[in-house]
Amino acid sequence: MRAMWKGSVSFGLVSIPIQMYAATENKNVALRQVHEADGGRIQYKRFCTVDGAEVPYAEIAKGYELPDGEMVVITDAEMAELPLSSQRTIDVLEFVPLESIDPIQYDRTYYLEPQKNAVKPYIVLRDALHKSSQVAVAKVAVRQRESMAVLRVHADVLVMTTMLWPDEVREPDFPFLRDDPPQIRPQELSMAGSLIDSLGEPVFEPEKYRDHYREALEEMIEAKVAGEQTTKPAAVTAKADVVDLMAALQASVDAAKKSREPAKPAKASKAAVSKAAVSEEDTEDEKPAKKPAARKRAPKKTA
């Protein structure tokens, strides 16, 4: 990992120099736009809509468009002069319980590594934060954008997650929220709860799940590289509308329970094998050895 930002964590009169790293990475298969006929890469050039000339990257500035179409041009030098107190500082403002923050506000996550001369204060803050069972709320400016952030402990490392501002989270304004809610029978609610219980786990284990789409895409690419014939996957049939909610919930509960039952040992198959072995031994013995089996059927006829 490469450090993408250097600064300090500041709380009270304590300042801890740190380096910041991206904690996540995109594992999507990188696909480029190409000409289907010959595989040539598609390229885009930056042209000015006023004079039609191609503009080099060094001459590109930022602009804010007014409602009447006029443009306010802002240069990088002017952006750098903006008074941001959090430009190189993660300024801790308060400490709150983690559950008091809705995950919808989370944006990006970063690892914070202490610089060589700041290991001790870094560990003090880390351990104190872990012991308090709280998280630190801070302000930070990264890439010309100031954000709220949360500092917490993960895998013995301080982790910073930037957050959206309150006005960046949309309100769920849907028509069904204004309509009268449908009547829910207690049996339906109870069955839905049973489905949740049947799929419940004590902890989340992401290692259990795989990206099947990415795996299929990688296999297709490997097959094309190897020159093999690729096959088109079967089309997924659309599911019919649910008519009986209770029946659908019951079927879901039964399927969930069945999928989580441990595999039972094949006792019946072992018995069948033992019977087959006995029958093979009978065929190798003399014919009189089979007569006791015939005598067993006699009592059934008298009954």
Could you describe the 3D structure shown?
The chain has 303 residues and is α+β, with helices and mostly antiparallel strands. The protein contains nine helices and nine strands. Strands 1-2-6-9-8-7-5 form a seven-stranded mixed β-barrel. A two-stranded antiparallel sheet has the order 3-4. It is extended and about 65 Å long. The model is unreliable at 268-303 (pLDDT under 50).
List the helices and strands and how they pair.
Blueprint: E1 5-11, E2 14-22, E3 62-65, E4 71-74, H1 76-80, E5 89-97, E6 106-114, H2 119-132, E7 134-141, E8 146-154, E9 157-163, H3 175-178, H4 186-198, H5 212-226, H6 245-260, H7 267-284, H8 291-295, H9 298-302
Parallel strand pairs: 1-5
Antiparallel strand pairs: 1-2, 2-6, 3-4, 5-7, 6-9, 7-8, 8-9
Helix pairs in contact: 4-6
How far is the N terminus from the C terminus?
Answer: 85 Å
Major β-sheet annotation: 7 strands, mixed, barrel
Order of helices and strands: EEEEHEEHEEEHHHHHHH
What proportion of the residues form beta strands (DSSP E)? 15-25%
Give me the secondary-structure category: alpha+beta
Side by side, the strands of the main sheet go: 1-2-6-9-8-7-5
Q: What's the rounded overall pLDDT mean?
A: 82
